[in-house]
Amino acid sequence: MARYTGPVCRLCRRERMKLFLKGERCFKEKCAIEKRGYPPGQHGQRRGRKAMGYGIQLREKQKVKRIYGVLESQFRLYFQEADRRKGITGENLLQILERRLDNVVFSLGFASSRAQARQLVRHGHIVVDSRKVSIPSFQVRAGQAIAVKEGSRTNTQIQGSLESASGRGVPEWLTLDA
Known about the structure:
The protein is mainly alpha-helical and about 180 residues long.
């Protein structure tokens, strides 16, 4: 499947907020939103109209898509699934997105960004219930054990991410046994 591979700091500037797409760089002064707080492009500094109605909804949808690294067609399918379920559609949608394997790997701290977590999953470094899973959109269920493969535990990227993520914390719905 396709995914966005262009400059991701540009996306943060477009949304006028940090989306934390670059991992550790977003926490430093090198972040593009810190340097230039205006949107990208030729007319970025002059762009100042207030969005209303549909424009606000569109910006929020684009933010969620960019944060989780999901393209439009897959996002539509997630929205349809969230709409079918009982309860509030927006909360259901965020639950579905949070349960993706690449997002869980990022939340546990095995990767410094969601893009890096996606790559770890695609390259087969992650096992779910002692079975290798290489699909980033795999939906994790309650009670499943996610771990790094035995041979990949010495990977410097994973070890560095675990060390830096210790200060970031783990969501309360996940438990980490380092």
